[in-house]
Amino acid sequence: MKGQSGPDFSILADKAFQKLYQNPDDCISYSQSLLISDQNPEHRVVLQNIISQAYAMKGDYVQSVNIYSQKDDTKEKENQSFFIQAAGDYNLADQYQNLDLYSQSQRIITGILADNKLLKGDNPRMNAITAKLYQLQAINFGINRNLNEALESLGKSDRYLGPHNQENQILEIENRIFKASYLLRQNKQEEAKHLLESTLLLAEKNTDYYFLQALVYENLSRYYFLKEDYDKASEILEKGLSRIESLPYNQLKARIYESLSRNFFALHHDEKYHQYNKLYTELRTQLDSNTKEGIRYIVKLVETNQINNLEFQKQKQTKKVLLISAGIITIILSLLIYFLMLRSSHKDLKKQSEFFQKQKEQELKTGPKPSEEINSGNKTSEKDPNKISKEKEDEILQKLEEWEKQQRYLDKSMSLSVLSSQMGVNTKYLSEVINSSKGKNFNSYINELRINHIARLLRTDPVYLNYKVSYLAEYSGFSSHSAFTTVFKSVTGMSPNIYIREISKNSAS
Fold first, then answer.
1. Which of 87, 172, 270, 403 reaches 20 to 30 Å from 314, CA-CA?
2. Gap between the Cα atoms of 453 and 397, Å rounded
3. CB-CB neighbours of 372 under 10 Å
4. Residues 214 and 249 sit within 8 Å (Cβ to Cβ)
5. Any idea what the Cα angle at residue 40 is, between residues 37 and 42, rounded to 5°?
6. Distance of CA 353 to CAs 452, 491, 502, Å?
7. What span, in angstroms and rounded, lies between the C-alpha atoms of 439 and 450?
């Protein structure tokens, strides 16, 4: 009933962990087969953590959280080993990080690492958990642009790794990649390049560690991008993509697609730019939807388990109950607020909330929804034969929607006549539909699309915060720096430099 013996299970678990970096689907299948036959509680939590990570690598956050929640429901929770408790807390912190809830993740990590029992360093399995926790902490610091703290946490993570198994070697390779990424962001480019090239040799020694190889290539391409060697950067990215193109590493694939589109844009290679930008947009939309569902699911999970958690804490310590209950309530409120902000506008910067709310209010004030406008336009058309027909307006609106999804408004040469020619629509009809359905003329319409696009990139990808305003202007389709600045201020109420400064300040706080 206790399942495999200790040494045997360590070998099997190590193999399961290796499969995380080879093929997530194979990892899930293999780990679930072990889980069925093993009733040892510590073994089960190890396997559940691996399966949960595999789903997260695929971008299936609901299933990842669901696996985490399937813990053994024992009435004697106080008898659980410290390892089970630490492994469960690590998994929860990892879940929050996967859902971009970094403050909640960091709160859990800080609490666990404050326990001296975790830091003794006399148990290989506990050491692996500790190394992973410090790695998560480093990633959280990196997200908040605390790069020195991030590098320090990676150093602590390395100290808990030994040559015991493949898991430790994989974690060491990951730490080297993250370190190189932070060095790049500190403008220590040559040091980062040297580290990535040596790490690539380690990753390719195990020819089937496809995820690690692609991750190294993706980071190495950033070095060449910063050097403005876009051909080399694109070549490296396509090598990385070839490692995982047939595998469901959707988060990493999305990053590679976005980087490829950025490089081909810089190279003025329109065909490949649109190819990879379309792939990125489609995959990013799917992942964003999965993130929303994952947040909903984890909020429900926290609410469902709240009473049980409180009862469990009462059995241990009344004072601790008060602290933990306050923490749980804070987490729930934070999650609910975050979800509402994410659902309405994907905005996570407090100092920009007034601007985002103003945008939402302006959208509400622009008039009826497209469908309502179509109906009203139809009534008018019945009275005025010179008006565009309802069927034609429907057709033009459908084409505009598809055009927006393809982000072709970023084309610098885009104009009303060019767009009407591409759509095969009369210029007068197209202008009339834009004015009536969008509430603005063509120039205002396309400029607002461009500004909203670049504003979203600045919020969601820290790399863009390092670019010059002139590059952002060119990337978003404007003919000049001054035109971009003028339109940006008219749409957002602030200049690009102030907007970037506020985002950077909010990320660092």
1. 87
2. 20
3. 11
4. yes
5. 125
6. 15, 15, 12
7. 17
Burial of 6 (0-12, 13-18, 19+ CB in 10 A): exposed
Which residue bears the tokens 């072990």?
34
Residue 181 to residue 172: CA distance in whole angstroms: 14
Tell me which residue has tokens 């946490």.
Answer: 153
Instruction: Give pLDDT tens digits for 82-122.
Output: 888 888 888 888 888 888 888 888 888 898 888 887 777 66
- pLDDT at 381 (0 to 100): 38
**Residue bearing tokens 């979203």:** 456
CA atoms 58, 60, 66, 69: torsion sign: positive
Distance (Å, rounded) from C-alpha 112 to C-alpha 110? 6
What single-letter amino acid sits at 501? R
pLDDT tens digits for 199-242? 999 888 877 899 999 999 999 999 999 999 999 999 999 999 99
Taking alpha carbons only, the member of 249, 196, 173, 338 closest to residue 20 is 249
DSSP string, 16-31: HHHHHTT-HHHHHHHH
Distance CA 84, CA 378 (A): 65
Please tell me the distance from the alpha carbon of residue 101 to that of residue 268, in angstroms, as a whole number: 36
Greatest alpha-carbon pair distance for the chain in Å reads 85
Backbone angles phi, psi at 165, to 5 degrees: -160, 180
Structure tokens that stand for 225 in this block: 């991008």
Mean pLDDT, the chain, rounded, equals 80
Q: Which two tokens stand for residue 322?
A: 């008060």
DSSP calls for 365-416 = HT-S-HHHHHHHHHHHHHH-TTSPPHHHHHHHHHHHHHHHHTTGGG-TT--H
* Cβ(41)–Cβ(72) below 8 Å: yes
pLDDT band at 462 (very low <50, low <70, confident <90, very high): confident
> Is residue 452 within 8 Å of 478, Cβ to Cβ?
no
The answer, yes or no, to whether residue 81 has pLDDT greater than 70, is: yes
- Angle between helix axes 270-316 and 61-69 (nearest 10 degrees) is 20
Question: Which residues, other chains included, contact 140 with Cβ-Cβ below 8 Å and sequence gap of 6+?
Answer: 97, 102, 105, 106, 109
In this structure, the number of other CB atoms found within 10 A of the CB of residue 477 comes to 21
Structure tokens at 140: 């959280």
Q: Which of 25, 99, 67 is nearest to 289 (CA)?
A: 99
pTM of the prediction?
0.60
